[in-house]
Amino acid sequence: MAHAYDVAAIGNAIVDVIAPASDDFLKAEDLAKGGMGLIDEERAHALYARMAQGVEASGGSAANTVAGVASLGGKGAYIGKVAKDLLGEVFVHDIRAIGVAFDTAPLETGPATARCLINVTPDGQRTMSTFLGASVALSPEDVSASVIAAANLIYLEGYLFDAPSARAAFSKATSLARGAGRRIALTLSDSFVVERHRAGLLAFIETDVDVVFANAAEVTALFETDDVDAASAALAARAAVAAVTCGAQGSIVLGEGRAERVPAVPVERVIDTTGAGDQYAAGFLFGLARRQPLAECARLGHIAAGEVITHYGPRPQTSLKALAFPA
Model-level pTM? Predict the structure, then answer.
């Protein structure tokens, strides 16, 4: 059966502000290097004022992933909440401009559009401070049954576990997907999310998730161990497919009764790791939607991740289709 969309993604709609920073700056601002912290609107304005000059781009984990799917030549849809403000208009324009369907009604009153302040140190590590703003107002009413039914795969952000309203939307999407016979994919998003919601995530994975994405820190946090291989196997015992990224060491892909290590794509210089996991998921999901073997899905994921770490910003700047399928 043909689907209108390869992937329908649901997540926090966020505008990213990405700037270079020193380790001294992180210390002065009391920011944990490589981590993600939630901040309020006042702190967002204060931190932004002290950051170096950078770039602003529409982001959000699941939105970045569906952007990657589009860059590979796939068809994507997105569900997420922005405010009716300038940054919200920027987000809507950007995601539609790359060919992704996006029709979620904006928030008329309340908090501003979400933004993530990303400070990138010379080693390519990103430290994220996120004001969730309007994104947490995503509600079950925003989840379109027709979009869910039209997609091959439904992709969900672990970040949605943080807000009650967004989590309710998460649940509705899951119910609709199951009713329509669609596969559900989940990214654990961040080890801090795992620490906050370990029991809920494990229960959800066991009952409703077909494909799980995690990095080494997230999967070991989920199972409270330092053994990445053991944690990956435990994850695979709960889902049909598990893909665990290990940075420059590539990824561990488990499913179809086997485990395989797939090498990363070498790059000349790492500029910014923002979006690497999101783009890996994009390549992997594109491959799954096109019925490719799991190792090929991972290869596509590494191509997408390899492109995004060579520049600032969480979305591809070079056509992933051209990189993955050269003429």
Answer: 0.90
* Assigned token pair, 302: 């590494």
* Strand partners of residue 117: 17, 129
β-pair type (241-245, 251-255): antiparallel
Diameter of the chain measured on Cα atoms: 55
CB atoms within 10 A of CB 32: 12
Looking at domain 5-324, does it have CATH number 2.40.50.140?
A: no
Query: What is the domain partition of the chain in residue ranges?
Result: 5-324
DSSP 107: B
Find out whether 102 and 127 touch, Cβ atoms under 8 Å: no
Distance CA 214, CA 194 (A): 10
Q: How confident is the model over 150-206, as pLDDT tens digits?
A: 999 999 999 888 888 888 998 999 999 999 999 999 999 989 899 999 999 999 999
Number of CB atoms found within 10 A of residue 269's CB? 7
**Residue 228 to residues 85, 156, 214, 234, 252: CA-CA distances in angstroms?**
43, 23, 11, 10, 9
